[in-house]
Amino acid sequence: MKAASIRRASMDAIVAQAEREFPFECCGFIIGDNENSVEEVRPVANIQNRMHAEDAAAFPRDARMGFLMEPKEHLAVMNEVDRRKLVLRAVYHSHPDHDAYFSATDRAQACSFDPPAPDYPAVVYIVMSIRAGKFAGAAAFAWDFEKKEFAETKLTVE
Q: Which of 10, 45, 58, 122 is 20 to 30 A distant from 155 in Cα terms?
């Protein structure tokens, strides 16, 4: 199972985004290269509030309890990864006024293309707890290929 290691600057950027977007969930990606000489944060707009307003039956949660990445921004990051020959290193999101855990909703979202398996099985998923608008902690989760489930893994900030 893959451990998570990100740079202090990346952690600071995603924490700042999560605090700025509180009381709503934030989301995005961390991209980089295999040699760990490049690591960049790519915030993505959370369109959960818009989708909830348009169709509350299909999207019962608003952005205080869920996130949905804006599809064009999501695709733009994937295209950038391909164009620059980088790798997707992490998917991140925040939990406003909740702990940093990988919920059943998080798992379903991570496995949206093929529900039994994650869309990005080699990627670490980082969840940040933001309480009263301030960072309270983070946890990382990786796909366990043997158990076919996400499991918490060590998160190192360097």
A: 45
Tell me which residue has tokens 């064009």.
72
Measured CA to CA, the distance from residue 18 to residue 137 in angstroms comes to: 11
Give 153's contacts (C-beta < 8 A, 6+ positions apart). Answer: 1, 2, 3, 4, 124, 140, 141, 142
| Span 1-19, pLDDT tens digits | 667 899 999 999 999 999 9
Burial bucket for residue 33 (CB in 10 Å: 0-12, 13-18, 19+): middle
| Residue-wise DSSP of the chain | ---EEE-HHHHHHHHHHHHHHTTS--EEEEEE-TTSS-EEEEEE-B-HHHHHHH-TTT----TTS---B-HHHHHHHHHHHHHTT-EEEEEEEEEETS-S---HHHHHHHTSSBTTB-SSTTSEEEEEEEETTEEEEEEEEEEETTTTEEEEE-EEE-
pLDDT single digits (tens) 82-132 = 999 999 999 999 999 999 999 999 999 999 988 889 999 999 999 999 999
